[in-house]
């Protein structure tokens, strides 16, 4: 589906260029043919290109590499992908392979370009603040994490259902109680702000942009497993 839409976007671009060239060549005429070219070249195809472009953005933001492309997100990505000793929820899920792909999107499905209209607007606002360099570090999420994102994966699993303490929590989650959060018992999802503050001893490593070079998440997992095996052999 994505490949078809990519081809369609290229086709729209080519046709748009041809139409604009033809309009320029016939700019002194006002025939039915020219009016049709105006309709498609200035209204229809630009709108279609806008829709295809936005769809491509929505799809591409499911990839964790999209989150990693921003410098301010490097601490979260490095902690998740490279720190095998980290006890953050993101790192534990990644290191244990509990999420096969779209690691960031799987936990933040209600956020950013993929979420509700409010979330999409927040995503655009964050993008603009990043591009215009009007943010400060450490960045902080002003909203609340939706624990239903966790429940969406854990619902029905035997290990989750076997914990008696989960029963009243689930009742509150289904009752839309914002005071209940999985993070209350299971700890932070990402490194705390103090570690992501410029000048802290952890900041330099966490902010290392090397993670941007990673394309295949499985390669990173294999690399970490290799390091762990080497460390085990050296004992």
TrEMBL record:
Gene3D superfamilies for this protein: Di-heme elbow motif domain (1.10.3820.10)
> Where is each NapC/NirT cytochrome c N-terminal domain found?
34-193
**Domain of life, source organism:** Bacteria
Q: Tell me where it resides.
A: Cell envelope
Q: Which molecular-function annotations from GO does this UniProt entry contain?
A: metal ion binding
Record InterPro entries = Cytochrome_c-type_ET, Multihaem_cyt_sf, NapC/NirT_cyt_c_N, NapC/NirT_cytc_sf
Q: Which GO terms describe its cellular component?
A: cell envelope
**Swiss-Prot/TrEMBL keywords:** Electron transport, Heme, Iron, Membrane, Metal-binding, Transmembrane, Transmembrane helix, Transport
User: What are the transmembrane regions?
Assistant: 6-25, 37-58
Chief subcellular location equals other
Q: SUPFAM superfamilies attached here?
A: Multiheme cytochromes
Name under which the protein is recorded: NapC/NirT cytochrome c N-terminal domain-containing protein
Q: Which organism is it from?
A: Flammeovirga aprica JL-4
């Amino acid at each position: 589906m994505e490949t078809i839409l990519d081809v369609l976007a290229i086709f729209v671009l080519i046709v748009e260029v041809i139409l604009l060239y033809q309009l320029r060549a016939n700019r002194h005429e006002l025939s039915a043919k020219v009016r049709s070219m105006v309709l498609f070249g200035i209204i229809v195809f630009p709108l279609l290109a806008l829709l295809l472009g936005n769809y491509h953005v929505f799809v591409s933001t499911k990839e964790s590499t999209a989150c990693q492309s921003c410098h301010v997100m490097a601490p979260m990505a490095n902690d998740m992908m490279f720190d095998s000793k980290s006890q953050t929820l993101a790192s534990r899920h990644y290191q244990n392979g509990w999420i096969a792909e779209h690691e960031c999107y799987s936990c933040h499905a209600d956020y950013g370009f993929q979420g509700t209209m409010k979330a999409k607007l927040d995503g655009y606002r964050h993008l603009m603040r990043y591009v215009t360099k009007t943010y400060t570090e450490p960045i902080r999420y002003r909203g609340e994490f939706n624990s239903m994102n966790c429940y969406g994966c854990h619902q029905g699993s035997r290990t989750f259902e076997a914990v008696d303490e989960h029963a009243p929590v689930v009742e509150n989650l289904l009752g839309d109680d914002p005071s209940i959060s999985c993070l209350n018992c299971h700890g932070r999802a990402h490194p705390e702000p103090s570690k992501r503050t410029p000048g802290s001893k952890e900041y330099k490593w966490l902010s290392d942009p090397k993670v941007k070079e990673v394309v295949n998440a499985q390669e990173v997992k294999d690399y970490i497993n290799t390091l762990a095996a080497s460390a085990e052999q050296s004992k």
